[in-house]
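Exercise 3.2. Students should predict the tertiary structure of the chain below and write it as structure tokens, then compare their answer with the key that follows.

Predict this chain's 3D structure.
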Amino acid sequence: MVDDKSTKNLTKISKLNLTDFRNHSYSSITTDKDFILLTGSNGSGKTNVLEAISMFSASKGLRGSNLVDQSNTKGSGGWSIFMEVHSELGNLKLGTGINKPDLINGKARQCRVDGTSYKSPKIFTNYLGIIWLTPQMDGLFTGQKSDRRKFFDKLINLIEKEHSENVKTYERLIMQRNKVLARLDILEDKWLDNLERQIAQLATQIFISRDLAASKINKIMEEEVRSNIFPSAKIVMREEIGNINLHSNMEEIEENFKNLLYELRKKDKITFRANVGPHRTDFTLLYKKNNMFAENCSTGEQKNLLISLILAEARVFQNNNNNFPILLLDEITAHMDNKRLANLFDQITDIGSQAWLTGTSPEFFSYISDKTDIFEISDGKLI
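Answer key:
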């Protein structure tokens, strides 16, 4: 059962300001609603608002863009985003952005919480969780394996807070190992031994974090959530780790993986890559009703499976934290009939999350009109 919302921190964005971000010279949105709908023609700047909100996650946002690409071409050179987050515990003022000199010099963006500066956007995850779904994800299960892995790792990081840092450090060490192998003639080296020991430690933590998070999400998707008509699914991880048993204890996994790296030094040197490890893992969803993997399902079924996953992720986040995640749903009505769309809105209401939506017409959202603020956008301006 989902926890009683009365015991939770109902986190909502009450104000959002964009300055010189993408095609928005200056846009300000104030709301106290559960649903915020951004309407307008394609290219008007609706998704840019969602991207602005996503910059308060630990990642580079829903597009994964470079900072310079987010700057308004007609602006001063930098950009900034400000939001007020209203919760049962009070109000927070969050800000992020970068000025022109820092942008030119390749520096990181600034991150602030109630006026205090921090080095990393990871600080924002202490106050809110953000989950998004965009049309670009519709081809997730038939696209590149690396894109699926990044997508699932972002979801896992909302549950296992150190996961993204472990993945980042692991990938850096894997690259170091590739370079060391390339320059060595004799593949016996104490530095390499130490490097592989560190890699094995991180790999084990990544394996365990993925398994724990996937188990929590799968459990929610297996349970009968009230009135949920989205398909029951299961996360399936396809590992490339030889004969290592991931259900053994942590010390055994770490030792076996370290030994596997040692055994594969020659092959990895020839191919200039590590041929096993969590960086090779693939993810998919099993559609239980048809006993079919997502990549073999129809486009509409894949969209419904993704929504089922996002809803389960939101419920797991709710159960693990003292607040509710913010949902960003870009052009969510595509491949959705009215019955399923209404059920999605019911599920979001049941979870308790605030949802920011985009669409070309308000008529698709009439089911939630009484609890929705609607903002029309044209050429980066609210009209």
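Discussion points: The mean pLDDT is 93. The two ends are 42 Å apart (CA to CA).
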